[in-house]
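Hi there, hope your week has been kind to you so far. Do you reckon you could talk me through the fold, stretch by stretch? I've dropped the whole record in just underneath, so have a look:
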Amino acid sequence: MNTSIARAGRRTTRTAGVAAAAVATVSLLAACASAEGGTSAGSASDDTTTASAEATEVQVIDQTNLLLTTAQETLEARGLEVQVADASGQGRAIDDPTQWVVVTQDPTSGSVERGTEVTLTVRMTTDPVG
C-alpha cells in the first residue's frame, strides 16, 4: 500500500510539473507574440517617420582621395547626383572610373536634400600629384 501511494504521489507531481511547464510555455509564446506585434507596430511607425526624414535629407560623406568608382557608388547610394570634372582642365573623357582619383568635392560634407548635385573633381591615377 505504501508503494502505490508513493507512485500515485509521483504521478501527481509529474503531472503537475508537466502542466506547469505547458502553462509557462504557452505564456512565454503569448508574451513573445504580443511583444512582436507591439514591436512591429512601433517599428512601422518609427520606420515611416525615419523614411520621411530620409526622403528629404541625407548626409554627404567626404570622398576625396578615393577612387572615382567608390566615390560615385557611395554618393549615389545616398540618393545624390554626381557630376565629375577633370582636374587638369583638359576635359578628358572619364571612361574608366577605376583609373581616376577624387581631388576635391563640392559640397564635401553636411546634410543636404536628397537629389542634390555633388561635384567631384578628379585626376587620373597616372597624373602627377600636385
In short: Residues 28 and 56 are 41 Å apart (CA to CA). The chain is about 50% helix and 20% strand.
